[in-house]
Amino acid sequence: MNAGLSTGQPRRLLIATNHLQHLAGSEVVALETAQHFAARGCDITVFANWAAAPMAELVAAATGTPVITDPNRIRPFSYDMAYVQHQVLGLFDYRPGDDERPATRIVAGRLSRRSYLESGGWLHDRILVDHVLANSALTAEHLARVGYDAPTTVFHNAAPDDFFRPFTEKPAIPHRILVVSNHLDPALADAMMRLRPDITVDHVGEAGGRVTLVTPAMIAGADLVISIGKTVPYALASHVPVYVYDHFGGPGYLDADNVDAAARYNFSGRCCERRLSGAQIAAEIVGSYAKGVAFAREPRQAWLERFRQPPYLDRLFDPPLASNAEKRRRLIKTAFIAQERMLAWHVRKSHVQCETLARQVAALEQRLQAMEPERPAA
To answer: Residue 205: which region, alpha, beta or left (left: phi > 0; alpha: psi -120 to 50)?
Structure first.
């Protein structure tokens, strides 16, 4: 138990990120983090620069409180632990307060080496962060190249415990395929159409499919999962064959020869720059299904443990590397902190303006559609 907490008092946790709206990527990571610590009895506050349904509602249900969108209400040093994504640390109040903890364990999730918001390297990170969770080996290597010296662990976009299930026998060809994609490569869409006359293909995602969270039951109920990124560890943990392909291409069925390279690139499909036509994808899905099943059947339990989420998140319970007084002293004495705070507020303002404009455009489009006269029946 951290100093400053009475026996039996729940630990206070801050989860801070840039946006909570869509059922995708960093937002799912934030939700699963909230669910993990809520199950452990923590008192959780969630901040996002932009929060909207459906994800903001799911996070609020997990924590019991609405998402906070006003940075002025967030004082990180009043929490025992903080998990942060994106460049939001520069928005908050670090002045002394009566409810301040002697030390706050701050862990940063870094989910990309390409995205400005997710790539890390800001001064606030270097001063405040005790540990970094990188989603892939490439992200960790990027952080090292930019001089990031905080302890870093690759967490492999790991899956909650509920996804871990033993292998169950599969048919000779897949009868039920689950496609999870918010992008949906045109060739993959063509392959889905080719497969659908004989195979049930369920598409989950914003590119024309059902928009819903991917659940352990959905993964376990599929004979094959087609996806990239965060969904792939779900399938691996469930011992379900997985075909890695989307708008970056991909290696197709994972096997012992390609899985390490695919994992290094966070199962994004970028590992091999391999692109196929819709006809080729459909033929490979059916013709090479046995290869995917054989890989899914292998126990590899020790290897699969790298994709188990709880041990990574529980790093937040480790002791902080410095007291809050020392972290504050570093903030005060470090040049350009004031400028970086201005930049953080500029990023926030720009994102909120873009989201607000997108909503206004969507509302206007709906009004225009409602005003269109109905066409007479032919």
So the answer is: left
pLDDT band (50, 70, 90) for residue 148:
confident
Give the span between the Cα atoms of 43 and 34, in whole angstroms.
10
Domains observed in the chain: 12-155+310-358 (3.40.50), 161-307 (no CATH)
Residue whose C-alpha is closest to residue 258's, from 295, 288, 311: 295
Q: Is the pLDDT of residue 262 over 50?
A: yes
Full-model pTM: 0.93
CB-based contact 150:132 (threshold 8 Å) = yes
% of the chain exceeding 70 in pLDDT = 96
CA proximity to 20, closest of 62, 60, 70, 56: 56
pLDDT 10s digits, 197-246: 899 999 999 888 899 999 999 999 999 999 999 999 999 999 999 999 99
Amino acid at 370: A
